[in-house]
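Input:
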Amino acid sequence: MSVRGRLAFGFLDLVAACLVAIGVFRGLPSRVWAVDGCAAAVVALLAVSGVGLMLGARWAPRVARATSMIVFAIGLALVATLALTASYLAGIYGPVGKGGAVILTLVAALALPYLVVLPASQLLWLRRR
Amino acid sequence: MTPRSLALVLLAYTVALAVACGLVHRAVGLHAPREPVTITSVWRDGALVARTASPEPPPAAAEGTRVREQVVGEGAMLVDPDLAFAISLVPGRDGVRASLDGKVAYVTPDDLLSRQSFDHGATIAELGLAVGVRTSDVMALLAERLQASAPEVRGRATLTRIRVERTVEGPPAPNAGITAETLTPAVVKDAAFAAARYLARGIDPNGRMRYFVDAPTNKNLGGYDWPRHAGATYFLAQAAHASHEPELAIAALRAAWLLRDKAMVACGEERCIGDDSIVEIGSASLALIAFVEIVRTELDPTFAPQVAELARFLRAQQRKDGEMQHLYDRGARHAIDVQYLYFSGEAALALSRAHLITHDAADLEASKRVLAYLVGPAWSFFGDRYYFGEEHWTCQAMDDLWERAPDPAALDFCVRWHAYGRRMQYGPGDTPFDAAGAFGVGPLVTPRLTPVASRCEAGVATRHALALANGSAPGRSCWRKRCAALDAQLRSSLALLVRQQLRPGAAHLFADPQAVAGAMPGSEVDWQLRIDYAQHAGSAMLRWLEVTAARRD
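Output:
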């Protein structure tokens, strides 16, 4: 495992943990246990994985791999939920409206880099070690 | 995981998701009903007295208004979770058909409108927002009609969303179908006077208004506040002057006397409006605007001293940088330097209007300074060109001051504010609602009408100032473009307000249609009527008529 790669992915995991924590616990206006629970798990996993990778701990690759798979699955589930919600609303209300579509797309775009692209890249990187 | 396996996973995911989205959209989207159904109801005094659904024959001769609701579409809907159920019905358009053990029952949009169930569903407390239908109402009605318990209906019945088209016997309301293209000054004048008459009918001999009314039951909902009382008084004075109707003049004066004789209290050296030990300046500002209108239109010139008193109070609340301090502690006899939405803009307009009566240069100067602060330091932050708020008084102050103290920066601010708002203005067919002319960013909340009205007030003011500015700078084609855009925006919004006014609206759902005739509802489906709804709409209409009649550009 290259030191540079380890430090880069460790740092990115910590950044993603912070962004998810801020986005969910500061950004969302109401508390829903399912969302909050998933977010808390993602934040904890990314934080542990990030710290482990940055410190070069022996357990870090295993934790990082498990974290990436879980976060990747949650990311895909989030995108699926948003897409299905948009489909449901479009079915009920007709065109969701320019504003609604923009909001849903922005939420998906905000989540994709941290919850889909990052864990997928990390899984590919971990495979090469 | 190899790149190939990851690519395969993502490909399979994308295909599965696309198929799932298509299936969901198709299942919940409306399609033609399997068999034509017409639900015939008889309503009397706002209550349902008889109902049948085809193939049953229509109800036998029951006394009341006969309404036919034809099912024109149906689609699947989720009953759990409750939020999904709540947002599964388009407000004012959709109802539910339930089948249980061979029995079929309907809950129509009229049933839900008469209970004011739409837009009172799932509450997002942090946003102060309720979306969707109140599902407990739907379940209670279905349970009653299916002779089962609500949990039984929820657990075992098959629920289908239905879209209905309503036909009411009798002539259509005078404002039905008005559009931006068919809107005329006569129609707007009629609507404005109807709104004023509604408010005037609700004023008791002491000058208090029917502040908040549930239209279907015609019951008072309680609450009261002086800023809205003062705003409504201002509109009544405007309408009395424009219509020359003695009833409106008497109503305006009663409301104004209450403000002067009961609500004006000592605030240090001056007098202000309020009941509590700490008062806000919005009441004083709007009372000042009302008193100026009463003096200016010669309804009662004896209000001139109170105009000067309230103007002095407001000036004493001003900071050195022009901003207003919004609270006053009457016990401690000092201003409290906090700011809330609207109050500074209201004060700017009030001081400008006061100057027309007092001719005190200090009032004009104070108004100019508030305005300069509002469009300058108060709206100076990263991204200030890409975001604007709800505040609609600043542009009225800018217009009011224009001929005495033009502020091009304020005019520019207002033009940009409206351009921003127009990006969110709905056109015909943009939503399932009757919302052409309203403002919003999504379909879940039925557009509120008061923001439409208050933006109209500001829009008329901006249009007027643009015309004045054009007069001093002829030949600038950008003015013509901006004016045309504002004109179209205003016509679309005013047409919506006229259409949605209760004239008497869906009269069969009201216990006393005449009592609420002329009122402005909160939205197409929110028929709880507060005095400021009629005030903002009526004031906007009257100013539009004035400005349109006086325009020569």
